[in-house]
Amino acid sequence: MIDSTQANTLLDALITAVDAPKTNNTGELYCGLDLGTAFIVLTVVNDKGEPVACAYQFANVVRDGLVVDYVGACDIAASLKKQVEKILGTELIHCAVAIPPKTEQLDGGAVKNVAESTGMNVVAVFDEPTAANLVMNTQEGAVVDIGGGTTGISIFEHGKVVTCEDESTGGTHFSLVLAGAKGMSFNEAELYKRDAAHHEEIVPIVAPTIDKVSSIIRSACRNRHVPEIILVGGTSELSGIEDRIEKALNIPVYKPNHPMFVTPLGIALGCRLHMLQEAHHA
Ligand code: ATP
After folding, report:
1. Which domain covers residue 240, as residue numbers?
2. What is the value of pTM for the model shown?
3. Residue 96 near ligand 1, beta carbon < 6 Å
4. CA-proximal residue: ligand 1, atom 16 (nearest)
5. What is the H or E stretch that residue 167 is in?
6. Helices (H), the chain
7. 205-250: per-residue pLDDT in tens?
8. Does one domain contain both 141 and 58?
9. Quick one: 163 and 71 in the same domain?
């Protein structure tokens, strides 16, 4: 069973750092750049692995895990880097990125190139569930990433990914259902959905879509030993989604604080770990 205390402490510190970045850093800084369907997130941790800064921007430059607007992605990444550098008063040099599982051939290095276009040195490219699990640290279980466009299920055995599935159904589908039910535009529904004060009202409206997510998870976990499920990704921010999925699957479901930031934080932690390991082997 995961002990989510440490993950929650790190995630709370990252969210605090969005509005109150830690300045006066003397050691190395390590960055994670996460390019998603809905957001681009830049996270920074210090030499002790503590979050020191986080900036993000709504973006429409990635679809199904692939960069579809390269110039737009580079512009946003550069602007986030500049913003963070100005606040921290230092240049950001070391960076890692992550891509969805099984997209290495399709991505063709685009995500890495976006990060490098900002002038940062990309030291590692992780797959997203591996990055998420650097924060959650499950040994045996499924990390379920409910993002903007898709739900990704990665099953871990002995702390390593053994299988991944990615199926279309994510926050965009939730927004479309909500927009239809409430007579809103898609963009209005997106904003309405992100306000936690509306979640109690929203969950019954999007219940069939949550049930679709549950059935995707059930099918990915069939014939596997999955003693626990960990929800990450922006759509997991929806309060109550965890209870409905747990009831449907009859498997304990854990949701950390600020699930949308698990993978972005894991990428920065992975950057630090990777560089420490390289230094150790040098
Ligand atoms: P993908 O993983 O599909 O590539 P992504 O990485 O951009 O996409 P995330 O950033 O994990 O995905 O999640 C984006 C989704 O999360 C969007 O649909 C957004 O509306 C939803 N979301 C973000 N914050 C909240 C919130 N507070 N409540 C409900 N949904 C939210």
Report:
1. 137-257
2. 0.95
3. no
4. 234
5. strand 160-168
6. 4-19, 70-88, 104-107, 110-117, 128-136, 171-182, 186-194, 199-205, 207-221, 241-249, 262-281
7. 999 999 999 999 999 999 999 999 999 999 999 999 999 999 999 9
8. no
9. no
